[in-house]
Specification:
The complex is a heterodimer of chains A (486) and B (299). With 486 residues, chain A is mainly alpha-helical. Chain A has 20 helices and five strands. In chain A, strand 1 and strand 2 form a beta hairpin. The N and C termini of chain A lie far apart (51 Å). About 3% of the residues of chain A have low confidence. In chain B, helix 3 crosses helix 4. Classes of the chains: A mainly alpha (486), B alpha/beta (299).
Chain lengths: 486, 299
């Protein structure tokens, strides 16, 4: 019933605003004009069907993946900016109804145009060659649009929670960053996923799925989790208590999901040809764990920027932590902290495993270290690192995450910057882009001071540098926080 | 009844509410007053189950605002001080939306509420075309569309012209007569005089005055009259000899206090006898302004 315009008041309100006859007629004519142009330009030969399919996909992306994502990112932010959000939160709408209303309501007009385009796409797919492949591609494109929209709404909800509690919802919400991030993730999965399948591997997921089915599955899974996230955050907005169980489930799912990818490596990295080569079991395990750590620290970093808990929430969490009230901590703990703990746990697994694994053993003519391990191991400007390098890499990654946590908390709670999100993004740019560029040019070991890469064999110097950075960041944050609030 | 128990709200760097304990009786019109930054808006948001307190609790008809916010929303209406409306919708569409969102049978209820807030001639007008006073009434209509028992209004009269304020006061009395308990914050104390019968004074996040003291004092024991005269200096020299006492002077207006049940005529006769012309006089239902200033001064 939540999807029925006549049963969901939020959808109906948007239908009043968006589905006006004049707008629908103009959009229909515009889409018809594009197709007519294609027909007259290419005639009725075989290529024209392909062109029409391609045009349909592009029109869908313009309408839903780009335009729709911008609108969805703004859907709740606009309510806050226009001071109507509190009234909505007080209605009897269930979180699920409001989530569906916010996800599809403001983009009803765009979905109408997209439906025309995809109907055309499927019509020309069924009547052409390889209809199943086109069908899967079409569904993947629709799922990508849905993913971009739901991700934008999710990030938007995450970013407003703090603003609500800290300043009565008077804060204006800017969604440009959220819009760009949602597009990047969605298009990466769509376009990057195709490259992933075509050029590098022939991956399977636990041996069950492969090829375009696997890509569709990945996009659908991401979209489904994004929608779950939207629902959970809508609950929070509507004052329902949310514990962190669903987030923990999500992180466990991420680990199991990523662990399921298997595929043949090509030997491109070493021999510039595409012959498959086997990978040792431990090398493969470490490679998967490394990707998972990257993903978990990435999620933590995004949450450090997006999840803006107000100071009131922060204080409640701090009280629960000091009193070790685990029941309450389940509700008050920020999601970035839960994610950081998972990153730490996986790093511990990786460090322990790496003590028993020497990549040199894998260079035996039969097996090779798996891709990412090889990259890390060989990142020495042509030299191979000592076998003790891998544990240092994982420890370094976690130390840098700890530093980022303290610095971002300092920027959010202890400074008077008006645009705190921008200040955090600037910080990330400086430490991960500017400094490594500045100090790490031409194989300068200075790179190792800022990133956990093995440059010039100065691993110990790297670790000492990271420990110093974490200590300084922590002391600076603690002193500033105490002097500001006590 | 609304029961507020040990309510504390801490913004981290600012304690907005500090251990508030108060009860708001059903059927009252409670004026929530206090200087800027006293915590009025935070308290109202906690009452409306929109903000989760740091500690303590609010019970609305025994429903906890934290444990069951939706239960509270079903019996509470809220109008924020800086509220927004769906500008592109008509009055009817907007109210239909909120009625449906509350799960209310909307066909008759929307018409009834439109009539109640006196917007029948603007039913199909887009909200963006309405005056400020009318927009305020649409806001109130949205807050009462689901027939709440309690309506919380944060600075509802700010920015309204005198005529619109009078209409608003009349609407509040009408709603109250219909059984709705109102909690109204305002900076315009004279306006609260017209309808409030209960007072809560907040200062620095704490309650400094509360309950029915004001109405009890004024309605049960005393009555206030405002008398506008031509010669206020002469009036000051008059000995009223127990007829009344002079409680305040503002320009040519003098406020006198009489024991409950006494007539004003002997006072007017005495003034005429002493050579003071009375230009006009009226009974002041209450005197929140005096009570407020006295309370804040003593707090």
């Amino acid at each position: 019933m939540e999807f029925n315009i006549f049963k969901n008041p939020e959808l109906q309100r948007n239908a009043w605003l968006e589905l006006r006859p004049a707008r629908l007629i103009v959009l229909t004519c515009l889409i018809a004009w594009v197709y007519a142009l294609l027909f007259t330009s290419f005639g009725r030969h075989a290529d024209s069907w392909n062109n029409i399919r391609e045009a349909s996909i592009w029109l869908f992306h313009i309408l839903i993946t780009v335009w729709g994502t911008k609108i969805t990112a703004d859907s709740v932010a606009d309510e806050i900016n226009q001071k109507t959000w509190d009234r909505q939160r007080m209605t009897g709408l269930s979180p699920w109804k409001l989530a569906v209303g916010k996800l599809f309501g403001p983009t009803l007009f765009q979905w109408y145009g997209a439906a025309l385009c995809m109907a055309t796409y499927f019509f020309f797919s069924v009547s052409g060659d390889d209809p199943m492949s086109h069908l899967i591609k079409g569904i993947t494109v629709i799922a990508t649009g849905l993913l971009a929209n739901s991700l934008a709404l999710l990030l938007s909800l995450l970013s407003i929670t703090g603003a609500q509690t800290s300043s009565f919802s008077h804060a204006r919400i800017n969604t440009t960053f959220i819009f760009i991030l949602s597009l990047l993730v969605s298009f990466s999965l769509l376009l990057g996923g195709q490259n992933f399948i075509t050029y590098l591997y022939n991956p399977t997921w636990y041996g069950l799925l492969s090829g375009e089915f696997l890509q569709l599955f990945v996009v659908l899974v991401c979209a489904a989790w994004a929608i779950v996230g939207v629902y959970r955050n809508m609950r929070t907005e509507m004052q329902y208590s949310n514990d962190s169980r669903v987030w923990v489930l999500f992180l466990i799912f991420i680990i199991l999901f990523c662990y399921g990818f298997n595929g043949h490596r090509t030997a491109q990295l070493f021999t510039q040809n595409e012959e498959p080569y086997p990978v040792s079991a431990m090398g493969s395990f470490l490679e998967k764990i490394t990707y998972i750590i990257f993903l978990l620290t990435g999620i933590t970093s995004v949450l450090l920027v997006i999840e803006r808990k107000g100071l009131a929430d922060y204080k409640i969490f701090n009280n629960d932590l000091n009193t070790l009230n685990f029941r309450n901590l389940d509700y008050s703990a920020p999601l970035w902290l839960v994610s950081a703990l998972f990153s730490l746990a996986m790093a511990l697994v990786a460090v322990t495993t790496s003590f028993f694994y020497n990549p040199l053993d894998d260079f035996n003519g039969i097996t090779r270290p798996a891709g990412i391990i090889s990259s890390l191991f060989l990142f020495h400007y042509g030299q191979e690192a000592g076998h003790n390098y891998l544990p240092i890499f994982y420890v370094g990654t976690i130390l840098l995450l700890a530093r980022d946590i303290f610095v971002t908390r300092y920027l959010f709670y202890c400074t008077n910057f008006k645009n705190k999100m921008m200040s955090v993004l600037t910080y990330y740019f400086i430490v991960y882009m500017a400094f490594p560029r500045l100090f790490g040019m031409n194989g300068n070991p200075g790179l190792g001071l800022f990133l956990p890469f093995n440059v010039g064999g100065y691993q110990i110097m790297s670790i000492l540098s990271f420990v110093a950075q974490v200590t300084i960041a922590y002391l600076f944050y603690r002193t500033s926080f105490r002097s500001k609030y006590r | 009844m609304i029961s507020i128990e040990h309510l504390t709200f801490d913004y981290g760097n600012f304690l907005a509410l500090d251990d508030i304990n108060v009860q708001i009786p059903r059927g009252s019109i409670t004026a929530l007053v206090g200087p800027n930054g006293a915590g009025k808006s935070t308290l109202m948001r906690c009452l409306a189950a929109l903000s989760r307190p740091t500690s303590g609790r609010v019970l609305i008809n025994d429903i906890d605002t934290v444990a069951n916010p939706h239960g509270c929303h079903a019996i509470t209406g809220f109008l924020a001080d800086n509220f927004g409306l769906y500008e592109a919708l008509t009055v009817q569409q907007s109210l239909t939306y909120f009625a449906r969102a509350h799960g209310v049978e909307y066909t008759n209820r929307v018409a009834e509420v439109i009539e109640m807030v006196n917007l029948a001639d603007k039913t199909n007008a887009p909200i963006k075309s309405l005056s400020r006073g009318m927009r305020q009434r649409v806001g109130i209509a949205q807050a009462i569309i689901h027939g709440p028992e309690f309506v919380i209004l944060d600075e509802p009269a700010s920015g309204l012209d005198p005529e619109a304020r009078i209409q608003l006061a009349s609407l509040f009395k009408q709603l109250n007569r219909g059984g709705i308990t109102l909690i109204v914050s305002s900076h315009i104390l004279a306006e609260l005089d017209q309808y409030a019968n209960n007072l809560i004074v907040l200062k620095n996040g704490r309650i400094v005055e509360t309950g029915f003291e004001l109405s009890r004092v004024q309605n049960a024991e005393y009555q206030h009259y405002v008398i506008c005269v031509d010669n206020i200096s002469l009036l000051k020299t008059i000995d009223f000899a127990g007829l009344c006492s002079l409680s305040g002077i503002d320009g040519n207006n003098a406020t006198v206090v009489l024991p409950a049940g006494e007539k004003i005529k002997p006072v007017l006769d005495l003034l005429r006898e002493k050579g003071v012309d009375v230009l006009e006089f009226y009974k002041s239902d209450s005197n929140i302004q005096d009570a407020y200033l006295k309370t804040i001064k003593n707090a």
